[in-house]
Amino acid sequence: MSLPRERGVNPLVKYLLFFFNFLFWVISVTLVAVGIYARVFKHAEAAVACFAMDPALLLVAIGVLVFFITFCGCVGSLRENICLLQTFSFCLALLLLLQLAVGILGFVFSEKAREKMNDMVSNAIVHYRDDLDLQNLIDFGQTEFSCCGGVSYKDWSQNMYFNCSPQNPSREFCSVPYSCCRQPEDQSVINTMCGQMAQMLSYTTADEFIHTSGCIDSLVDWMHSNLLLIGAVALGLTLPQLIGLLLSQMLVRQLKDQIRFLSYNQRHQTDYW
Fold it and tell me: What digits encode the pLDDT tens for the residues 152-211?
């Protein structure tokens, strides 16, 4: 059995892990602050039934999660606390496994994932006018992907303001949002009424001035066309977690070696005396 050697904690590993976590800790605080501002001050009375479709609450949730993990990493590395460092490592490892599981399940059960996505988009359409951030997010998606609704432009009939029910008194009766429209490139002023009564038209007629294809198919097509970009983003999200996990385990090992060495010295000094 080899005798334990004196090994101090490497300052480079310790402070690199600290500053690494401190950077993401600042980012997490910023996310929470922005989320709270958007939720409380911008539209305090707004209510979205689907948690996953509220950008403000999503920011707060992600910020709180990152805050807890990076807090353990910051304090654990600075105070050389093995318990906090192990908690930090466990959370990162669990997060990596969850991301991997979601990716695999999404690939294997692609139809189920599409159904779930369709449910989320449908719920978002229902609450389109209830939340300003959600409304801006949907408009941005429909404009960028040149699409309208989840499966087709007629999905907007699920919204109480856009449905085609005879009892609907809204001025947007049987219409679609302006973000569904085919806007001319040289048009400086957006025609917000361009989708008026669009749901009453056939696909062929409506396609002349609005996008009739759904955003789910457009998103899937975009993902198939940008697999390299998606892989680069996934790697960019995973790499910092792997670095943090590696640094924390290196520091834990150094701390354990240091404890073993001190314990060995104390035991032998007691035996000597």
Answer: 999 999 999 999 888 888 888 999 999 999 876 655 666 667 888 899 988 888 888 899
Q: Per-residue pLDDT for 120 more than 70?
A: yes
Query: Letter for the amino acid at 196?
Result: Q
Q: Using the Cα atoms of residue 236, residue 237, residue 240 and residue 241 in order, give the sign of their dihedral.
A: negative
Separation CA 173–CA 107 (nearest Å) = 39
pLDDT band at 227 (very low <50, low <70, confident <90, very high): confident
3-state secondary structure the chain: CCCCCCCCCCHHHHHHHHHHHHHHHHHHHHHHHHHHHHHHHHCCCCCCCCHHHCHHHHHHHHHHHHHHHHHHHHHHHHHCCHHHHHHHHHHHHHHHHHHHHHHHHHHHCHHHHHHHHHHHHHHHHHCCCCCHHHHHHHHHHHHHCCCCCCCEHHHHHHCCCCCCCCCCCCCCCCCCCHHHECCCCCCCCCCCCCCCCHHHCCHHHHCCCECCECHHHHHHHHHHHCHHHHHHHHHHHHHHHHHHHHHHHHHHHHHHHHHHHHHHHHHHHHHHC
Under 8 Å between Cβ of 198 and 152 = no
* Residues 13 and 251: beta-carbon distance below 8 Å: yes
CA 7 to chain centre: 41
Q: Which two tokens stand for residue 67?
A: 């805050």
Q: Tokens at residue 108, please?
A: 């294997």
Asked if 60 and 133 count as a contact pair (C-beta separation under 8 A), the reply is: no
